[in-house]
Fold this protein.
Amino acid sequence: MAVSDSYRVYVLEQLQVVGTVTAKAMFGGVGLYRDGMFFGLIDDDTVYLKVDDSNRADFERAGSRPFQPYGEDSYSMKYYELPADVLEDRSVLGEWVLKAVAVARNSATARKKRPRSP
């Protein structure tokens, strides 16, 4: 789950295309935040963005794989690998990131609306 300093710096520079993106260390990786919303992560020098039914197909068409924190035999999380060509192309990257931020926001809103169990 290591993230090299140089990769972290590069990713943050690229992500500034959507405004201020911050990074926080988490479980050996790095969490990515925009306006306080956790929308992605970096693990093993790979960027993963939050997905749901609104954007998952974009990642699948690009051949991306889901984030599996404990290897290929582990469960998948709702984050998919950001294709390298998208990370390198800031004109496309912004769209992908903003979709992931919207997914994160919608997910947080849905959690708040769920009734609490007694």
Q: What stands out?
A: The chain has a mean pLDDT of 90.
